[in-house]
Amino acid sequence: DIAIVIHKHDLPHIFPPEVLAEAEAVSPVVTEDQLVGRLDWREVPTVTIDGETARDFDDAISLKKLDNGNFQLGVHIADVSYYVREGTPLDVEARLRGTSVYFPERAIPMLPEHLSNGICSLNPKVDRLAMSVLMEVDRNGQVVKYELRESVIRSNERMTYTDVNKLLTQADPDLAIRYSEVLKLFKTMEELARILIRARTQRGAIDFNLPESVFDFDDEGRIAGVIKADRNIAHRIIEEFMLLANETVASHFHKLSVPSLYRIHEEPETARVIEFARLAQGYGYRFAMSEVGSKDYQQLSKQLEGKPEERVLSYAMLRSLQRARYSAQNLGHFGLAAPIYTHFTSPIRRYPDLIVHRVLRALLQAGERFGVGGAGAAPRNAPKPIAFGELELIAQESSERERAADAAENEIDEWRKAVFMAERVSEEFDGMISNVRDFGFYVELDEFFIEGLVPV
User: Fold this and answer.
1) Which residue has the higher pLDDT, 221 or 19?
2) Model confidence over 302-358: pLDDT tens digits?
3) I need a surface site. Which of 60, 78, 190, 354 has the fewest CB within 10 A?
4) Facing residues of 128 across strands?
Protein backbone atom coordinates (compact mmCIF):
# COMPACT_ATOMS: atom_id res chain seq x y z
CA ASP A 1 0.00 0.00 0.00
CA ILE A 2 2.84 2.43 0.76
CA ALA A 3 4.47 1.62 -2.60
CA ILE A 4 1.15 2.30 -4.36
CA VAL A 5 0.66 5.63 -2.58
CA ILE A 6 4.28 6.68 -3.25
CA HIS A 7 3.80 6.15 -6.99
CA LYS A 8 0.29 7.61 -7.07
CA HIS A 9 1.46 10.89 -5.54
CA ASP A 10 4.82 10.91 -7.37
CA LEU A 11 6.93 10.96 -4.20
CA PRO A 12 10.71 10.65 -4.80
CA HIS A 13 11.82 7.99 -2.31
CA ILE A 14 15.18 6.60 -3.48
CA PHE A 15 18.25 8.83 -3.12
CA PRO A 16 20.50 8.86 -6.24
CA PRO A 17 24.05 7.53 -5.64
CA GLU A 18 25.63 10.98 -6.06
CA VAL A 19 23.34 12.41 -3.34
CA LEU A 20 24.23 9.64 -0.88
CA ALA A 21 27.93 10.03 -1.74
CA GLU A 22 27.79 13.76 -1.05
CA ALA A 23 26.04 13.17 2.28
CA GLU A 24 28.50 10.47 3.32
CA ALA A 25 31.43 12.79 2.58
CA VAL A 26 30.26 15.25 5.26
CA SER A 27 32.18 15.02 8.54
CA PRO A 28 30.02 13.31 11.22
CA VAL A 29 31.43 15.66 13.88
CA VAL A 30 31.82 19.43 14.20
CA THR A 31 35.40 20.47 13.51
CA GLU A 32 37.36 23.41 14.99
CA ASP A 33 37.61 25.29 11.68
CA GLN A 34 33.78 25.33 11.45
CA LEU A 35 33.53 27.35 14.67
CA VAL A 36 35.28 30.48 13.41
CA GLY A 37 32.99 33.51 13.80
CA ARG A 38 30.21 31.54 15.50
CA LEU A 39 28.54 32.39 18.79
CA ASP A 40 29.64 29.71 21.29
CA TRP A 41 26.50 28.68 23.18
CA ARG A 42 27.78 25.28 24.35
CA GLU A 43 27.95 26.18 28.03
CA VAL A 44 24.36 27.49 28.13
CA PRO A 45 21.76 24.87 29.22
CA THR A 46 19.86 23.83 26.10
CA VAL A 47 17.27 21.09 25.49
CA THR A 48 15.27 19.55 22.67
CA ILE A 49 11.62 18.51 23.14
CA ASP A 50 10.10 16.15 20.56
CA GLY A 51 7.86 13.11 20.24
CA GLU A 52 9.00 9.68 21.46
CA THR A 53 9.65 8.35 17.94
CA ALA A 54 11.45 11.44 16.58
CA ARG A 55 14.98 10.89 15.27
CA ASP A 56 15.72 14.22 13.59
CA PHE A 57 15.88 17.15 16.01
CA ASP A 58 15.52 20.50 14.23
CA ASP A 59 15.20 22.79 17.21
CA ALA A 60 16.64 23.30 20.69
CA ILE A 61 15.64 25.81 23.37
CA SER A 62 17.54 27.86 25.94
CA LEU A 63 15.80 30.23 28.36
CA LYS A 64 16.55 32.34 31.40
CA LYS A 65 14.99 35.21 33.32
CA LEU A 66 16.80 38.53 33.18
CA ASP A 67 17.29 40.96 36.04
CA ASN A 68 14.76 43.36 34.48
CA GLY A 69 12.02 40.70 34.65
CA ASN A 70 12.13 39.89 30.94
CA PHE A 71 13.02 36.52 29.41
CA GLN A 72 16.00 35.69 27.21
CA LEU A 73 14.70 33.03 24.84
CA GLY A 74 17.06 31.22 22.49
CA VAL A 75 15.60 29.19 19.63
CA HIS A 76 18.46 27.25 18.03
CA ILE A 77 17.73 25.63 14.67
CA ALA A 78 19.91 23.04 12.94
CA ASP A 79 22.24 24.80 10.48
CA VAL A 80 21.28 22.66 7.50
CA SER A 81 22.19 25.33 4.92
CA TYR A 82 25.83 25.03 6.03
CA TYR A 83 25.88 21.44 4.80
CA VAL A 84 23.40 21.61 1.90
CA ARG A 85 24.79 24.19 -0.52
CA GLU A 86 22.87 25.67 -3.43
CA GLY A 87 23.08 23.75 -6.71
CA THR A 88 24.67 20.59 -5.27
CA PRO A 89 23.12 17.13 -5.81
CA LEU A 90 21.89 17.26 -2.18
CA ASP A 91 20.16 20.58 -2.85
CA VAL A 92 18.60 19.48 -6.15
CA GLU A 93 17.17 16.34 -4.51
CA ALA A 94 15.90 18.26 -1.45
CA ARG A 95 14.11 20.74 -3.73
CA LEU A 96 12.60 17.88 -5.74
CA ARG A 97 11.21 16.30 -2.55
CA GLY A 98 10.21 19.59 -0.95
CA THR A 99 9.35 18.00 2.38
CA SER A 100 9.73 14.83 4.43
CA VAL A 101 6.72 12.49 4.32
CA TYR A 102 5.62 10.60 7.43
CA PHE A 103 3.71 7.31 7.36
CA PRO A 104 2.77 5.32 10.49
CA GLU A 105 5.61 2.80 10.06
CA ARG A 106 8.23 4.74 8.09
CA ALA A 107 9.28 8.13 6.81
CA ILE A 108 10.56 9.38 3.45
CA PRO A 109 13.10 12.01 4.55
CA MET A 110 13.95 15.12 2.53
CA LEU A 111 17.64 14.60 3.32
CA PRO A 112 19.69 11.36 3.64
CA GLU A 113 19.80 9.94 7.18
CA HIS A 114 23.55 10.65 7.49
CA LEU A 115 22.50 14.31 7.65
CA SER A 116 18.91 14.27 8.94
CA ASN A 117 19.57 11.93 11.88
CA GLY A 118 23.29 12.63 12.15
CA ILE A 119 25.34 15.82 11.89
CA CYS A 120 22.32 18.09 11.21
CA SER A 121 20.23 16.69 14.07
CA LEU A 122 20.65 18.51 17.40
CA ASN A 123 21.43 15.31 19.29
CA PRO A 124 22.24 15.55 23.02
CA LYS A 125 25.76 15.82 24.49
CA VAL A 126 27.46 16.60 21.15
CA ASP A 127 28.48 19.84 19.41
CA ARG A 128 26.16 20.96 16.62
CA LEU A 129 26.12 23.95 14.28
CA ALA A 130 22.98 26.07 14.54
CA MET A 131 21.27 29.25 13.43
CA SER A 132 20.13 30.98 16.63
CA VAL A 133 17.34 33.49 17.22
CA LEU A 134 18.08 35.15 20.56
CA MET A 135 15.08 37.16 21.77
CA GLU A 136 14.44 39.31 24.81
CA VAL A 137 10.72 38.95 25.53
CA ASP A 138 8.88 41.20 27.98
CA ARG A 139 6.02 40.27 30.34
CA ASN A 140 3.50 41.16 27.62
CA GLY A 141 4.95 38.64 25.20
CA GLN A 142 6.59 41.29 22.98
CA VAL A 143 10.09 40.90 21.54
CA VAL A 144 11.92 44.06 22.66
CA LYS A 145 15.35 43.06 21.34
CA TYR A 146 16.74 40.24 19.23
CA GLU A 147 19.91 38.95 17.64
CA LEU A 148 20.32 36.46 14.79
CA ARG A 149 23.58 34.48 14.81
CA GLU A 150 25.42 31.52 13.39
CA SER A 151 26.22 29.47 16.48
CA VAL A 152 27.45 26.22 17.97
CA ILE A 153 25.41 24.53 20.73
CA ARG A 154 25.52 21.35 22.80
CA SER A 155 22.08 20.10 23.84
CA ASN A 156 21.99 18.92 27.47
CA GLU A 157 18.93 16.67 27.19
CA ARG A 158 16.73 15.02 24.58
CA MET A 159 13.29 15.43 26.19
CA THR A 160 9.88 14.16 25.07
CA TYR A 161 6.55 15.96 25.23
CA THR A 162 5.25 13.22 27.54
CA ASP A 163 8.06 13.56 30.09
CA VAL A 164 8.02 17.37 30.10
CA ASN A 165 4.25 17.30 30.67
CA LYS A 166 4.72 14.87 33.58
CA LEU A 167 7.35 17.14 35.10
CA LEU A 168 5.16 20.22 34.83
CA THR A 169 2.04 18.48 36.17
CA GLN A 170 4.06 16.75 38.94
CA ALA A 171 2.73 13.41 37.74
CA ASP A 172 5.97 11.44 38.23
CA PRO A 173 8.17 12.12 41.33
CA ASP A 174 10.93 9.79 40.08
CA LEU A 175 11.12 11.74 36.83
CA ALA A 176 11.37 14.99 38.78
CA ILE A 177 14.40 13.62 40.65
CA ARG A 178 16.01 12.40 37.42
CA TYR A 179 15.64 15.80 35.74
CA SER A 180 16.05 17.99 38.84
CA GLU A 181 18.77 20.07 37.13
CA VAL A 182 16.46 21.23 34.33
CA LEU A 183 13.11 21.27 36.17
CA LYS A 184 13.36 25.01 36.85
CA LEU A 185 14.05 25.58 33.14
CA PHE A 186 10.82 23.84 32.13
CA LYS A 187 8.78 25.80 34.67
CA THR A 188 10.19 29.03 33.23
CA MET A 189 9.29 27.74 29.74
CA GLU A 190 5.70 27.16 30.83
CA GLU A 191 5.52 30.65 32.33
CA LEU A 192 6.72 32.30 29.11
CA ALA A 193 4.55 30.06 26.90
CA ARG A 194 1.41 31.09 28.78
CA ILE A 195 2.36 34.76 28.35
CA LEU A 196 2.80 34.20 24.61
CA ILE A 197 -0.49 32.29 24.33
CA ARG A 198 -2.30 35.16 26.04
CA ALA A 199 -0.67 37.72 23.71
CA ARG A 200 -1.59 35.75 20.58
CA THR A 201 -5.15 35.29 21.81
CA GLN A 202 -5.50 39.03 22.39
CA ARG A 203 -4.49 39.83 18.83
CA GLY A 204 -7.01 37.32 17.42
CA ALA A 205 -5.05 34.16 16.55
CA ILE A 206 -7.26 31.12 15.95
CA ASP A 207 -6.62 27.89 17.87
CA PHE A 208 -9.00 25.14 16.76
CA ASN A 209 -7.36 22.50 18.96
CA LEU A 210 -8.42 19.73 16.56
CA PRO A 211 -6.57 16.53 17.52
CA GLU A 212 -4.99 14.22 14.96
CA SER A 213 -5.28 10.44 14.91
CA VAL A 214 -2.45 8.22 16.19
CA PHE A 215 -2.11 4.49 15.53
CA ASP A 216 -1.55 2.21 18.48
CA PHE A 217 0.45 -0.87 17.36
CA ASP A 218 0.66 -4.20 19.14
CA ASP A 219 3.86 -6.27 19.63
CA GLU A 220 3.45 -7.89 16.22
CA GLY A 221 3.18 -4.56 14.42
CA ARG A 222 -0.56 -4.74 13.82
CA ILE A 223 -2.88 -1.83 14.54
CA ALA A 224 -4.45 -2.29 17.96
CA GLY A 225 -6.37 0.96 18.00
CA VAL A 226 -6.74 4.46 16.60
CA ILE A 227 -6.63 7.15 19.27
CA LYS A 228 -6.55 10.95 19.49
CA ALA A 229 -3.09 12.51 19.65
CA ASP A 230 -2.38 14.15 22.98
CA ARG A 231 -1.67 17.90 22.89
CA ASN A 232 -0.37 18.99 26.27
CA ILE A 233 1.45 22.03 27.67
CA ALA A 234 4.80 20.70 26.40
CA HIS A 235 3.45 20.82 22.83
CA ARG A 236 2.20 24.36 23.42
CA ILE A 237 5.60 25.47 24.73
CA ILE A 238 7.39 24.39 21.55
CA GLU A 239 4.59 25.70 19.31
CA GLU A 240 4.73 29.16 20.88
CA PHE A 241 8.53 29.41 20.82
CA MET A 242 8.70 28.32 17.17
CA LEU A 243 5.94 30.76 16.17
CA LEU A 244 7.83 33.60 17.84
CA ALA A 245 11.12 32.69 16.14
CA ASN A 246 9.41 32.44 12.73
CA GLU A 247 7.76 35.85 13.16
CA THR A 248 11.01 37.45 14.34
CA VAL A 249 12.99 36.20 11.33
CA ALA A 250 10.21 37.18 8.90
CA SER A 251 9.92 40.70 10.32
CA HIS A 252 13.72 41.08 10.16
CA PHE A 253 13.75 40.30 6.42
CA HIS A 254 10.73 42.49 5.75
CA LYS A 255 12.24 45.45 7.61
CA LEU A 256 15.42 45.19 5.52
CA SER A 257 13.43 44.70 2.27
CA VAL A 258 15.29 41.47 1.58
CA PRO A 259 13.55 39.04 -0.83
CA SER A 260 12.63 35.81 0.96
CA LEU A 261 9.93 33.17 1.29
CA TYR A 262 6.86 33.78 3.43
CA ARG A 263 4.22 31.45 4.82
CA ILE A 264 0.94 33.14 3.95
CA HIS A 265 -2.68 32.45 4.87
CA GLU A 266 -5.11 34.60 2.93
CA GLU A 267 -8.53 35.79 4.11
CA PRO A 268 -11.39 33.30 3.57
CA GLU A 269 -13.52 33.46 0.44
CA THR A 270 -16.93 35.10 0.91
CA ALA A 271 -18.94 32.13 -0.43
CA ARG A 272 -17.34 29.74 2.06
CA VAL A 273 -17.87 32.16 4.93
CA ILE A 274 -21.57 32.49 4.07
CA GLU A 275 -21.94 28.69 3.88
CA PHE A 276 -20.33 28.30 7.30
CA ALA A 277 -22.32 31.19 8.83
CA ARG A 278 -25.58 29.51 7.82
CA LEU A 279 -24.47 26.24 9.42
CA ALA A 280 -23.47 28.04 12.62
CA GLN A 281 -26.81 29.86 12.72
CA GLY A 282 -28.54 26.49 12.49
CA TYR A 283 -26.89 25.64 15.80
CA GLY A 284 -27.91 28.98 17.30
CA TYR A 285 -24.59 30.84 16.90
CA ARG A 286 -24.25 34.27 15.30
CA PHE A 287 -21.46 34.61 12.76
CA ALA A 288 -20.85 37.49 10.38
CA MET A 289 -21.29 36.83 6.65
CA SER A 290 -19.03 39.65 5.49
CA GLU A 291 -15.85 41.40 6.61
CA VAL A 292 -14.93 38.45 8.82
CA GLY A 293 -11.74 38.74 10.87
CA SER A 294 -9.72 36.12 12.71
CA LYS A 295 -11.21 37.35 16.00
CA ASP A 296 -14.69 36.30 14.79
CA TYR A 297 -13.41 32.75 14.34
CA GLN A 298 -11.56 32.88 17.63
CA GLN A 299 -14.60 34.06 19.61
CA LEU A 300 -16.85 31.37 18.12
CA SER A 301 -14.19 28.74 18.81
CA LYS A 302 -14.21 29.78 22.49
CA GLN A 303 -18.02 29.61 22.65
CA LEU A 304 -17.89 26.05 21.30
CA GLU A 305 -15.47 24.69 23.92
CA GLY A 306 -16.95 21.62 25.61
CA LYS A 307 -20.22 21.72 23.60
CA PRO A 308 -21.48 18.58 21.80
CA GLU A 309 -21.35 20.43 18.48
CA GLU A 310 -17.77 21.64 19.02
CA ARG A 311 -16.07 19.17 16.69
CA VAL A 312 -18.69 19.50 13.93
CA LEU A 313 -18.50 23.28 13.80
CA SER A 314 -14.73 23.40 14.35
CA TYR A 315 -14.14 21.20 11.30
CA ALA A 316 -16.67 23.25 9.29
CA MET A 317 -14.88 26.42 10.43
CA LEU A 318 -11.57 24.99 9.25
CA ARG A 319 -13.06 24.08 5.86
CA SER A 320 -14.28 27.65 5.40
CA LEU A 321 -10.70 28.95 5.55
CA GLN A 322 -8.19 28.99 2.74
CA ARG A 323 -5.16 26.72 2.77
CA ALA A 324 -1.86 28.22 3.93
CA ARG A 325 0.88 28.28 1.30
CA TYR A 326 4.33 29.64 0.48
CA SER A 327 4.88 32.87 -1.41
CA ALA A 328 7.64 35.33 -2.23
CA GLN A 329 5.12 38.08 -1.41
CA ASN A 330 4.14 38.84 2.16
CA LEU A 331 0.34 38.68 2.32
CA GLY A 332 0.10 38.08 6.08
CA HIS A 333 -1.21 35.09 8.00
CA PHE A 334 -4.96 35.23 8.73
CA GLY A 335 -5.11 32.25 11.10
CA LEU A 336 -2.24 33.49 13.27
CA ALA A 337 -3.43 37.11 13.04
CA ALA A 338 0.16 37.87 12.09
CA PRO A 339 1.05 40.66 9.63
CA ILE A 340 4.13 38.71 8.57
CA TYR A 341 5.22 35.09 8.96
CA THR A 342 7.68 32.56 7.55
CA HIS A 343 8.89 28.99 8.10
CA PHE A 344 12.40 28.91 9.57
CA THR A 345 12.37 26.24 12.27
CA SER A 346 12.37 22.92 10.35
CA PRO A 347 15.11 22.96 7.67
CA ILE A 348 15.77 19.21 8.05
CA ARG A 349 12.30 18.37 6.75
CA ARG A 350 11.04 21.44 4.81
CA TYR A 351 12.78 22.97 1.79
CA PRO A 352 11.33 26.50 2.26
CA ASP A 353 12.96 26.65 5.72
CA LEU A 354 16.29 25.78 4.09
CA ILE A 355 15.83 28.67 1.65
CA VAL A 356 15.05 31.08 4.52
CA HIS A 357 18.26 29.92 6.24
CA ARG A 358 20.24 30.73 3.08
CA VAL A 359 18.78 34.23 2.96
CA LEU A 360 19.69 34.73 6.62
CA ARG A 361 23.22 33.39 6.12
CA ALA A 362 23.81 35.85 3.27
CA LEU A 363 22.74 38.71 5.56
CA LEU A 364 24.90 37.51 8.44
CA GLN A 365 27.93 37.16 6.24
CA ALA A 366 27.35 40.74 5.09
CA GLY A 367 27.56 41.85 8.71
CA GLU A 368 23.84 42.26 9.46
CA ARG A 369 23.26 40.58 12.84
CA PHE A 370 20.96 42.79 14.82
CA GLY A 371 17.29 43.70 14.70
CA VAL A 372 15.26 45.73 17.16
CA GLY A 373 17.57 47.33 19.71
CA GLY A 374 20.64 46.55 17.59
CA ALA A 375 22.13 47.99 14.42
CA GLY A 376 18.73 47.95 12.71
CA ALA A 377 19.81 49.09 9.25
CA ALA A 378 20.63 46.97 6.21
CA PRO A 379 24.32 46.82 5.28
CA ARG A 380 25.10 48.80 2.14
CA ASN A 381 26.12 45.78 0.14
CA ALA A 382 23.59 43.32 1.57
CA PRO A 383 23.50 40.46 -0.96
CA LYS A 384 20.22 39.35 -2.45
CA PRO A 385 21.16 35.75 -3.17
CA ILE A 386 17.89 34.54 -4.67
CA ALA A 387 15.94 36.47 -7.30
CA PHE A 388 12.26 37.19 -6.65
CA GLY A 389 11.14 35.11 -9.64
CA GLU A 390 13.16 32.12 -8.42
CA LEU A 391 11.70 32.50 -4.92
CA GLU A 392 8.18 32.53 -6.37
CA LEU A 393 8.94 29.34 -8.32
CA ILE A 394 10.33 27.64 -5.19
CA ALA A 395 7.24 28.76 -3.25
CA GLN A 396 4.92 27.24 -5.87
CA GLU A 397 6.88 23.97 -6.03
CA SER A 398 7.06 23.69 -2.23
CA SER A 399 3.32 24.29 -1.84
CA GLU A 400 2.61 21.57 -4.41
CA ARG A 401 4.97 19.08 -2.72
CA GLU A 402 3.39 19.86 0.65
CA ARG A 403 -0.08 19.12 -0.74
CA ALA A 404 1.14 15.87 -2.31
CA ALA A 405 2.76 14.79 0.99
CA ASP A 406 -0.39 15.62 2.98
CA ALA A 407 -2.56 13.72 0.50
CA ALA A 408 -0.25 10.67 0.65
CA GLU A 409 -0.14 10.69 4.46
CA ASN A 410 -3.93 11.02 4.68
CA GLU A 411 -4.46 8.23 2.17
CA ILE A 412 -2.24 5.81 4.09
CA ASP A 413 -3.99 6.77 7.34
CA GLU A 414 -7.41 6.10 5.77
CA TRP A 415 -6.14 2.82 4.31
CA ARG A 416 -4.87 1.69 7.74
CA LYS A 417 -8.17 2.63 9.35
CA ALA A 418 -10.12 0.68 6.71
CA VAL A 419 -7.98 -2.43 7.33
CA PHE A 420 -8.51 -2.01 11.08
CA MET A 421 -12.30 -1.68 10.71
CA ALA A 422 -12.58 -4.50 8.15
CA GLU A 423 -12.11 -6.94 11.05
CA ARG A 424 -15.10 -5.35 12.82
CA VAL A 425 -17.78 -5.64 10.13
CA SER A 426 -21.22 -6.36 11.72
CA GLU A 427 -20.17 -4.81 15.06
CA GLU A 428 -22.11 -1.75 16.27
CA PHE A 429 -20.53 1.53 17.39
CA ASP A 430 -21.76 4.81 18.76
CA GLY A 431 -20.80 7.80 16.64
CA MET A 432 -21.49 11.40 15.78
CA ILE A 433 -22.57 12.80 12.41
CA SER A 434 -19.73 15.17 11.61
CA ASN A 435 -20.68 16.41 8.14
CA VAL A 436 -23.66 16.21 5.80
CA ARG A 437 -23.32 16.42 2.01
CA ASP A 438 -25.71 15.80 -0.88
CA PHE A 439 -24.15 12.35 -1.47
CA GLY A 440 -24.36 11.14 2.16
CA PHE A 441 -23.13 11.95 5.64
CA TYR A 442 -19.94 11.36 7.61
CA VAL A 443 -19.87 9.64 11.00
CA GLU A 444 -17.05 9.84 13.54
CA LEU A 445 -16.90 6.90 15.96
CA ASP A 446 -16.74 7.56 19.70
CA GLU A 447 -14.58 4.54 20.57
CA PHE A 448 -12.02 4.97 17.78
CA PHE A 449 -10.80 8.18 16.22
CA ILE A 450 -12.14 7.12 12.82
CA GLU A 451 -14.54 8.83 10.40
CA GLY A 452 -16.42 7.16 7.58
CA LEU A 453 -18.97 8.00 4.90
CA VAL A 454 -22.52 6.65 4.96
CA PRO A 455 -23.51 7.13 1.28
CA VAL A 456 -27.04 7.85 0.06
Assistant:
1) 19
2) 999 888 888 889 989 999 999 999 999 999 999 999 999 999 999 999 999 999 999
3) 190
4) 153
Whether the CB-CB separation of 204 and 298 falls below 8 Å is answered with: yes
Which of 99, 31, 41 lies closest to 355 in space, CA to CA? 99
Q: At what angle do helices 89-97 and 388-422 cross, to 10 degrees?
A: 60
Per the prediction, the chain carries an average pLDDT of 92
Share of the chain above pLDDT 70, in %: 96
Residues 74-131 pLDDT 10s: 999 999 999 999 999 999 999 999 999 999 888 999 999 999 999 999 999 999 999 9
